[in-house]
Amino acid sequence: MDLTQLGQQVWFGLINGAVYVMFAAGLSLVFGVMQVFNMAHGEVAMLGAMLLFSLVSYAGIPYPVAVLLAIAAMALFGVAMNRLTVQPFVGTSRLIVMMSTLALSYVMLHGSVNIWGTTPKVVPPPFRQVYDVASIAISARSIMIFGIGALAI
């Protein structure tokens, strides 16, 4: 393996790490503040991504507007989710709350399969630029992911 390949793999590792950090930060924030282990955390992230995909691909909404709409919709969904699956069980066992969010996870998972199917979907990238830095291909999209991950930290 030459240095270019090593550098490319290090960059990909940083980008994947940034995504994992953002995901883990959400989980730990919810658990740290509310003492709730949200079993539907991954499905909520998937719902936001699929909503963004639908707004851009099917509704033809420009990417920046679709991102803002998806964020607003997911914030409202988070409030509704909290009121329906967490708040009714506050003061009971943590296991009951965990099972409630697990049930929501299954409903969201199977509902999304019924709505969007099982074939992979890709949101058209908002930035298509690729920069060559010391023979390492760095896309504008990956720079944005890394920046948002750094801000989340």
Question: Any chance you could write out the topology, listing elements then pairs?
Answer:
Layout: H1 3-34, H2 41-57, H3 63-86, H4 94-116, E1 130-133, E2 136-139, H5 140-152
Antiparallel strand pairs: 1-2
Helix pairs in contact: 1-5, 2-3, 2-4
In short:
It contains five helices and two strands.
Q: What do you see in this structure?
A:
With 153 residues, this protein is mainly α. 71% of the residues lie in helices and 5% in strands. The chain is built from 5 helices and 2 strands; from the N terminus they run ααααββα. The chain has helices at residues 3-34, 41-57, 63-86, 94-116, 140-152, and strands at 130-133, 136-139. A two-stranded antiparallel sheet has the order 1-2. Helix 1 (3-34) runs parallel beside helix 5. The longest helix has 32 residues, at 3-34.
Query: Over the alpha carbons, how many angstroms does the gyration radius reach?
Result: 18 Å
Order of helices and strands: HHHHEEH
Shape summary: globular
Overall residue-averaged pLDDT value: 89
Major sheet: order of its strands? 1-2
Number of strands: 2
Share of β-strand residues: 5-15%
Low-confidence segments: none
Question: What's the helix count?
Answer: 5
Estimate percent helicity.
over 70%
For the record, give the distance between the C-alpha atoms at the N and C termini, rounded to a whole number: 32 Å
Biggest sheet record: 2 strands, antiparallel
Classify the secondary structure makeup into a structural class: mainly alpha
